[in-house]
Predict the 3D structure of the following.
Amino acid sequence: MARIEPQELGKLLWRCRRGMKELDVLLTRYVEEQYCGAPAAHQEAFRTLLEAPDMVIYGYLLRQHRPPTALLSSLIERITGRAFDDGYYP
């Protein structure tokens, strides 16, 4: 597994600031807790996800819309899994 540079993590954390607290919390927690240990495909999918509009990401994370690919669905499950388990969302 490739080492992630602190500068890259800093940029990702900055890109996780979306202006919606729900998105900020979930995306930031994913970067801080899972991104470095995630498979390269999930890391790439996450960087691509951050290019999407807030409302698209919001729809995926709150399970209102189905992601278009199995890889993105798997990533969304990794991001939201603990949030739903912890009761963060109903």
In short: The chain has one domain: 6-85. The first helix runs from residue 6 to 15. The chain has a mean pLDDT of 88.
